[in-house]
Amino acid sequence: MKFCKDCKHFVEGEVSPTLAKCQSRVVDPVYGTPKIQYVEIMRKDYHHIETCGPEGRWWEPKPVEPVKSFWQKIWSK
User: Fold this and answer.
1) Domain that residue 42 falls in
2) Do the beta carbons of residue 14 and residue 22 sit within 8 Å?
3) What is this structure's pTM?
4) Which of 14, 20, 28, 72 has the highest Cβ tally under 10 A?
């Protein structure tokens, strides 16, 4: 199963986890910028909005962060 929290387009909700957002490939036709939608809207199967759907069509894995050594954790910002 593809979970939004594991997708590279997922943005954690600042106030509440239910307010998490998706920065996927949907582009605003007026400004050409990415449309940011709530995750719950993107995973539903609406016919009038371009969405990821329940199957997670636009899901992409988050990049794996390298494991830092003890000294890298101490000296890096």
Assistant:
1) 1-77
2) no
3) 0.67
4) 20
| Count of domains for the chain | 1
The set of residues, in sequence order, having a beta carbon less than 8 Å from that of 43 and lying 6+ positions away, is: 4, 51, 52, 53, 54, 56
Instruction: Tell how far CA 43 is from the center of its chain.
Output: 11
User: Could you tell me how far CA 12 lies from the centroid of its own chain?
Assistant: 8
* CB neighbours of residue 26 within 10 Å: 18
Alpha-carbon gap, residue 6 to 71, rounded angstroms: 28
Give residue-wise pLDDT tens across range 6-39. Answer: 999 898 887 777 789 888 877 778 888 877 888 8
Please tell me the distance from the alpha carbon of residue 36 to that of residue 27, in angstroms, as a whole number. Answer: 9
Grouping H, G, I as helix, E, B as strand and the rest as coil, residue 11 is strand
User: What is the band of 77 on the pLDDT scale with cuts at 50, 70, 90?
Assistant: low
Tokens 């809207």, residue located: 41
